[in-house]
Amino acid sequence: AGVVKVGCVGPFTGSAASWGTDLKRGLTQFADDIKTEGGILIGDIHYTVSIECFDGEFKTQGGVAAANSLVLEKGIKWVVGPITSPECLGWQQVAEPLKAMAIIPVGCWGEGIIGADHPGTFRLGLSFREQGPVHATWVKKNLPQVQKIAYIGVDNATGRSSVDQMKTAFEAAGLQTVAAEFYRPETVDFGPIIVSMLAKKPDLIYAVVIPDSEQGLLWKQVAELNYQGEKMGGVVNLAEGIKAADGPKPWENVYSIGTVPFCDAKASLPSELKLCDALTRKYGEAPSSYAFNGYA
Questions:
Q1: Which residues pair with 6 in a beta bridge?
Q2: Strand pairing of 78-80 and 101-104?
Q3: Are 86 and 60 in contact (CB under 8 A)?
Q4: Which residue has the higher pLDDT, 87 or 265?
Q5: How far apart are CA 85 and CA 80, in angstroms?
């Protein structure tokens, strides 16, 4: 018997910790299932899968540290992740010269991360360059009252690149950008940014790739300032966002395009429901899309 070592990189601490945690849970379940099934037969040897994860901390230096640990020190050549653009940029500095392969299930949407210059980095999910036009078309069709949009994102490679891609798509659809604000990670007081956005009288506030706990705080404070317009933002772990907002009310009427109900019996495949049940029983909470991305 043999062992295939697979690394994983994502944020396991801080406001985006749920992203990395669920990625690890999905990968771990995959490794457990492979072991239960007797391993993967390669030639005449059955291999099990060993998962080794590293906290990239949603930072460039975290990606550098992950590559140093997993590739240089432990000799791992295949990694699922990183998840965020700062982590990817740091990872590539160290891992690419060593020909380590990064398979990004979702995320790392920053410009220049994927392409001919990075032959060892693969992204399975779509960036906002591909998703943006779909979002803009949906808004134009379903929210015809929306003409002016204020964007908010994290002040790092993930936030700035994602906001720029979304702005480009919405402006191409004829919608006006009135504000694009960025905040430091781990911010708890969004008041000054919200006041600045509301002064521009947006019809819609778009929270672009904001961790669920910070997004919960944002929507709570938006409601406290009596904003009456439309709201939009991608959600990974809604329970975490509701907890941060001190309840579900601030999340009312927040549109989330692309949030997949993997644990919905009416919308999911039998294999998805089986994985959902296994992870829910193991961890006591329903998995997010990152767990399914990790398993896949």
A1: 51
A2: parallel
A3: yes
A4: 87
A5: 14
